[in-house]
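Please produce the structure of this protein holding thymidine-5'-diphosphate.
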Amino acid sequence: MVDLPRIADPRGNLTFVEGSNHIPFDIARVYYLYDVPGGEGRGGHAHQQLQQLVVAASGSLDVLVDDGTHRERFFLNRSYYGLYIPRMVWRELDDFSSGSVCLVLASRPYEEEDYFRDYGAFVAAKHGDNGTGLDTA
Ligand code: TYD
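Below is the modeled complex.
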């Protein structure tokens, strides 16, 4: 979890993110998920190279992360916390609250060939990485 800067102000609070300062990559792309029906989720996948920061800019969602060995679930409901997702981590975004907005800062442009969309293929590649299933890259 990344605790982002917070400029508290009675007119409304402000949070900012600087690439290679608050997060360990330069920001090449921003995308956001919105109009997700309450309780819904988005499909799971992993990336060979992409690093991402996931922020619940409004509302809340659950993020499941899985490095091929361990699984952990994070609940995001504050716009000043981000979840950093390194390369080669499977992630699923679940249980969006109605009206939520999930903001994602990404280290690379959209590249379909960077995706693992099959969990079994992801785990096999992970275990082939260094023989331990742990990502040391
Ligand atoms: P995808 O990343 O597959 O999301 P999910 O796993 O939640 O379904 O994206 C869904 C579609 O949107 C897919 O066809 C690719 C397209 N897309 C882009 O064209 N550019 C982007 O930056 C992203 C994130 C997705």
